[in-house]
Amino acid sequence: MDNQLVKVLISEPRRYKNKIGLFDINYVTKRNPWLAAFWALALPGLGHIHIGLHIKGFILISGEIFLNLMGHINEAILYTMTLQFDKVHQIINTNWAFLYCIIWFFAIFDSYRVTVELNKYAWLEEKQSVRYFKKGVLEILGINFVEKRTPWMSIFLSATLSGLSHICNNKLVSGLTLFGWMLAIAYFTEYPNMIIYTFTGQFDRINSIVNYKWLLFFPSIYFFAIFDAYSHTVNYNNVFKEEQKYYLLNKFGENDFDLV
Questions:
Q1: H or E segment to which residue 143 belongs
Q2: How far apart are CA 94 and CA 71, in angstroms?
Q3: How far apart are CA 166 and CA 228, in angstroms?
Q4: CB 3.0-4.6 Å disulfide test: which of 78, 107, 117, 206 passes with 40?
């Protein structure tokens, strides 16, 4: 029997570039695995949120904060940095601290590992002859779609209050995670009062109200929210341009498209 070459028409891609739901726009793109590991080091769960694993990120952040508070980890860090080593032994709970370390190391390792795998996925997705881009969803409960956004506005909203930019961009799971924990931190540290006392020159009153056990969570979440909001906005814009270019090339053939 003669060998016959069978031509197969591929109409459906094996891998998708992005998915859009009412509560989020998720996508695959190449990321630095060390950056994801860095954010996981700063606070377990942040690295996972950055690469799009929002539920896993929420679980790890919530677990880390609970174990940190029960083990008095932040207080131990503060006393260590101020060279008050005798107080570290007095307040730290080694039972909870041991569990905290397990979560911490797992989050760093897993965020790095998953980012490496997602980079492979993203590379393979780009090499497909047929690709899949979703433009948006229109439902009774809401609307969500890919559009061009302003990265600097994302920075401003996140700097005002963590999570606002994510909510504005319909990244509701990660947005509510960051927003909710930032509200908790602001409440327990009396952060708004600290700002008021700072601008009114009442510096002596700040020391009497500050709660360092909660305050040390603030830098990680605050600066991550700014970075992540900017990063996602830039990537949204790239997905938007990539989809437009792919559509026009398939519709009109090879041309010099200048997409701005």
A1: strand 143-145
A2: 7
A3: 9
A4: 107
Tally of residues, the chain? 260
Joined tokens for residue 108: 């760093």
On whether the CB atoms of residues 122 and 239 are closer than 8 A, the answer is no
The domain ranges of the chain are 18-252
Say what the pTM is.
0.87
Using CA atoms, how far residue 50 sits from 6, 55, 142, 176, 220, in Å, is 43, 12, 24, 14, 13
C-alpha 179/C-alpha 240 separation (Å) is 26
Alpha carbon distance 249, 85 (integer Å): 65
**Would you give the distance in Å from CA 67 to the centre of its chain?**
21
Q: What is the pLDDT of residues 38-87, one digit of tens each?
A: 999 999 999 999 999 999 999 999 999 999 999 999 899 888 888 888 88
Three-state SS at 236: helix
> Strand, helix or coil at 220?
helix
**Could you say which DSSP state residue 6 is in?**
P
Measuring CA to CA, which residue among 36, 240, 237, 26 is closest to residue 151? 237
